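Continuing the series of single-chain predictions for the mutant panel. This is the parent chain; the variants come on the following pages.
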Amino acid sequence: MVQKTKEKGIEASVMSATELTFEDEFDAVFSNAVLHWVKEDEKSIKIFLNP
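Parent structure:
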Protein backbone atom coordinates (compact mmCIF):
# COMPACT_ATOMS: atom_id res chain seq x y z
CA MET A 1 0.00 0.00 0.00
CA VAL A 2 2.86 2.36 0.74
CA GLN A 3 4.37 1.83 -2.71
CA LYS A 4 1.01 2.43 -4.44
CA THR A 5 0.57 5.60 -2.39
CA LYS A 6 4.01 6.85 -3.44
CA GLU A 7 3.19 6.10 -7.08
CA LYS A 8 0.29 8.54 -6.75
CA GLY A 9 2.67 11.27 -5.57
CA ILE A 10 1.69 11.08 -1.90
CA GLU A 11 4.39 11.00 0.76
CA ALA A 12 4.29 7.71 2.70
CA SER A 13 6.73 5.78 4.86
CA VAL A 14 7.09 2.70 7.03
CA MET A 15 8.59 2.79 10.51
CA SER A 16 8.24 1.14 13.88
CA ALA A 17 5.41 2.42 16.09
CA THR A 18 7.88 2.47 18.98
CA GLU A 19 10.42 4.61 17.10
CA LEU A 20 8.36 7.32 15.42
CA THR A 21 10.36 10.42 14.52
CA PHE A 22 7.49 12.82 13.83
CA GLU A 23 7.05 15.90 15.98
CA ASP A 24 4.25 18.46 15.55
CA GLU A 25 3.72 17.42 11.91
CA PHE A 26 0.07 16.34 11.84
CA ASP A 27 -3.30 17.83 12.68
CA ALA A 28 -4.82 14.35 13.02
CA VAL A 29 -3.78 10.71 12.73
CA PHE A 30 -5.94 7.72 11.84
CA SER A 31 -4.97 4.22 12.84
CA ASN A 32 -6.99 1.08 12.31
CA ALA A 33 -6.14 -1.50 14.99
CA VAL A 34 -2.39 -0.90 14.82
CA LEU A 35 -1.82 -1.80 18.48
CA HIS A 36 -2.98 -5.34 17.80
CA TRP A 37 0.29 -5.83 15.90
CA VAL A 38 2.70 -3.84 18.11
CA LYS A 39 4.60 -6.09 20.54
CA GLU A 40 5.69 -3.14 22.70
CA ASP A 41 2.29 -1.44 22.82
CA GLU A 42 2.89 0.38 26.13
CA LYS A 43 6.10 1.91 24.75
CA SER A 44 4.34 3.13 21.60
CA ILE A 45 1.45 4.61 23.60
CA LYS A 46 3.88 6.54 25.83
CA ILE A 47 5.33 8.19 22.72
CA PHE A 48 1.96 9.85 22.11
CA LEU A 49 1.16 10.63 25.74
CA ASN A 50 4.60 11.93 26.77
CA PRO A 51 6.47 13.06 23.66
